[in-house]
Design a protein that fits this description.
Length: 426
Amino acid sequence: MTFKEIVRFYISFECDRFRKLAIAKLSNLPVKKMKLFTEYPEKDELKYCDLMSELVKKNMENLYGGKKKKTAKRDTHSKTHAAVQGTLEIFDFDEAAIKQELSKRTSLSEAELSAISLKQGLFATPKQYPVWLRFANGAFSVKNDYEGDTRSMAVKVIGVEGERLSQSHELKTQDIITHNTEFFFVRTIKDFHSFFLTVYRAGLFPLFKLLVLFWLKLHPYESTLLQTSFKRFPKSLLKERYWSASAFSVGLKSGFDPSQPGRVPVEYPAVIKYGFTPVSSQIPHQQLPVESRSESELRKAKASGSEDNYYREDIIQALAKPDAEYYWDFQIQFQTSPEMSIDDTTIVWNEEESPFFTVGRLTIKHQKVNSPQENDFGENLSFSPGNGLAVHRPVGAINRLRSIVYPIVANDRHQKRGVKYQEPTV
């Protein structure tokens, strides 16, 4: 397909999309009434999940296959800053108080509130869990840290007992993947396939890189969200706030059929998002203010002409101090109205309407994280929203897609790196 043919294809595609949207709006079709704690299938979801599965395989082969000598990395969040050990303490939180607050903020009946059981799975009992954390940038390739990007903190909780999700790749862990943005930049699996296909084609031939800019021009909403995400340049990833952006269940209804999500609407006892809010190391652990790298520092790093690995160097130096201690409140946020979409992860759940509740605390202390073994360990760690307990099922269309493609990329990466993956322990 020539460049002109691709341009014509995208113009035709977008014109047809806008035409259909206009027709739907003008025809005054009734709006589907959404229910609380309910996820809905996306049109042609299975088709686009299959297309994405094949596309990520092609992309990994294009990036790292054949005679290429590059060491295989992830297809997204490619740059690992550090793998860090920590502790996640689950508190003996006041379930009744949380439910009381929910009763004020939702239209749930007494019976529906009673059906919510918060103290199950990871939250079942007060306990301290060892964790592995991977700090990374969000981009498709390894770039300098002065370039705009999202930053992620993937949390792997060790020693979690209970019935597993069928797609789990480990036996006793719970993965919680978070970023320093409250949203994901695309609404649907179909849109993400369109974007990822453009990125893949851009990697095939230098001229095709223009296609990414063209896609963003044709998708102003998604482009604005990306630009918003890239504006944050944290002073330290050890003092940054992180959100899951996508949602997870708390429990399953009686007779739950795991084959139904993505095919029909599925209702859960409760649906939440996760958050990690940085707090002071001193009691009473007050929330830390937001800090950013200065504009002058960013300009200086760019002008130097050398690689900027600021975040890795900051983590190494900070944790090398004998008295190093970093804390986050581990929090959950409930969907309190159907307008807080589960499936559309571009929609931020307003904290004034649904505040976060603290249910635990994440702690990182003094350690050395700059050995070659640590580097390899961090690169080889495998995370997925679908790795964990059945009662904490990832919900929403984007989460269903991620639960499919993350293991595909991990298996391909390990195969190309010659790694026999083993479930991590302390």
